[in-house]
From TrEMBL:
Single Gene Ontology BP annotation: methylation
Alphabetized SUPFAM superfamilies for the sequence: S-adenosyl-L-methionine-dependent methyltransferases
Stored PANTHER family: TRANS-ACONITATE 2-METHYLTRANSFERASE-RELATED
Transmembrane segments: 220-241
Gene3D superfamilies linked to this entry: Vaccinia Virus protein VP39 (3.40.50.150)
InterPro entries in the cross-refs: Methyltransf_25, SAM-dependent_MTases_sf
Protein name according to UniProt: Class I SAM-dependent methyltransferase
Residue span(s) of domain Methyltransferase: 56-151
GO molecular function terms listed in the Swiss-Prot or TrEMBL record: methyltransferase activity
Pfam families in UniProt: Methyltransf_25
Keywords on record: Membrane, Methyltransferase, Transferase, Transmembrane, Transmembrane helix
């Protein structure tokens, strides 16, 4: 399935006013299980640091929802949000200017070639980006070169345990834009170490509760929207029924360690 056209439709629908854009961000925060995991990690990383003037790279900023969250955590933090798509950069720049959120800059960059000329960032955030980039080790090397000593990179990406909804050799990714179906947990840590990172940690997300929630809250609605835009009318009623179950499932997934899962949360330190 081509996921980007559906994302563009959703973005356009909620981009009419700053209020609707904020509603969109709040809906993403509620619906996307990866956001639950990332917010938990960011709160842990930011504990005791909110009064420090830190530099953060949002690497593959997309709709800008994580830059919005980070800049709301502390006015002292400065976020550089980069994406390869012109329309995303222009759209986010316009929204953040309208809400007078001044501690973020959006810029078009290709992560395969982009690196800062000096050690700049205390944190690099990469959410559902690496599965779209073939030259992943080059990107990790760029992250490493652009980070301050002691800085951390935080990555969310599909795993090889059914990530991208692939469960066998004869299946292809649910999201056609993916260049890999998922990372082996040891593989991505080895790649980060080969890029220079001294210490890595990784754990599975989207365990059994998360897989059920993802199908109910994301996969089935996306399939419906891909079949017909008329399902936009039905979606609010659909979510009224299924979301209470997804809420419980998301909480269970975020607060449980999983032996396996279709997603990975990976951290590495310089």
């Amino acid at each position: 399935m081509q996921y980007d056209p559906i994302k563009r439709v959703l973005g356009d629908a909620f981009n009419k006013t700053p209020f609707l854009r904020k509603v969109f961000y709040n809906l993403l925060d509620l619906l996307l299980l990866r956001t639950w995991h990332i917010h938990k990690e960011l709160r842990a990383w930011g504990k005791g640091r909110r009064q420090q003037p830190l530099q953060i790279l949002d690497a593959g900023s997309g709709f800008g929802q994580y830059s919005y969250y980070l800049t709301g955590m502390s006015e002292k933090w400065r976020v550089l949000a980069v994406d390869v798509k012109d329309e995303q950069i222009a759209d986010c720049t316009n929204f953040f200017q309208k809400i007078n959120r001044r501690n973020v800059i959006f810029r078009k960059e290709d992560l395969v070639t982009y690196r800062e000329p000096q050690e700049t960032f205390d944190l690099v955030l990469s959410v559902d980006v690496m599965e779209h980039i073939l030259e992943d080790v080059e990107v990790f090397k760029n992250f490493y070169a652009s980070m301050k000593p002691g800085g951390m990179v935080l990555i969310s990406t599909p795993s090889d345990q059914g990530g991208s909804d692939v469960h066998g050799d004869d299946e292809s990714s649910f999201i056609e834009e993916h260049v890999r179906d998922g990372y082996n947990i040891q593989e991505i840590q080895n790649k980060l170490k080969s890029a220079g990172f001294s210490r890595t940690e990784a754990h599975y997300s989207y365990g059994t509760p998360g897989k059920i929630s993802w199908r109910l809250s994301m996969k089935y609605p996306i399939l419906m929207l891909g079949a017909s835009k008329l399902f936009f009318v039905i979606l609010p009623f659909y979510y009224l029924i299924v979301y209470p179950f997804c809420l419980v499932l998301n909480w269970l997934d975020t607060n449980t360690r999983h032996e396996t899962g279709t997603g990975l949360i990976v951290k590495a330190w310089k």
